[in-house]
Design a protein that fits this description.
The protein is an alpha+beta fold. The chain has four helices and six strands.
Length: 138
């Protein structure tokens, strides 16, 4: 994927970063990081392109990546849980209209309305969901 010039590419995560985020997601939210999402993180540790953000493994408002990227999985999901009813799933990313979520077990990927959280589209697996949200931006 080639992001626009003003949106820096985040370097890929190493295995230690992926293991750390897996443990933090499990301990804080009871959530499992999907393997297909870990594969994305190995290639690019967070994506911010044309209004789509797929969260990284470690970033936060206090610890930013290249270009000021702060949307890490833990930081973003902590914020999303401020909204009642959003504790039943893990948010992998967002856009101006949608949230990309999975069940806490890492399965059942769903594109949800960003405001109401109502399901808009379901996918057979996380890899397909990631490809779907990235395809228009390539």
């Amino acid at each position: 994927m080639r992001p626009p010039i003003d949106e820096p590419v985040q370097p890929g995560a190493d295995e230690a970063a992926i293991a750390a985020v897996r443990e933090r997601l499990r301990s804080l939210f009871g959530a499992t990081l999907p393997d297909a999402y870990a594969d994305l993180l190995r290639r690019e540790d967070g994506v911010d392109v044309d209004g789509l953000v797929l969260y990284g493994s470690w970033q936060s408002p206090e610890a930013r990546g290249p270009g000021g990227f702060w949307q890490g999985l833990v930081a973003a999901n902590t914020l999303w849980r401020d909204v009642p009813g959003r504790e039943g799933y893990l948010v992998l990313g967002d856009s101006d209209l949608y949230l990309l979520t999975v069940d806490l077990d890492g399965g059942a990927p769903v594109l949800r309305d960003r405001v109401t959280a109502e399901p808009v589209e379901s996918f057979p697996d996380v890899a397909t969901a990631i490809e779907h949200v990235l395809a228009p931006r390539r």
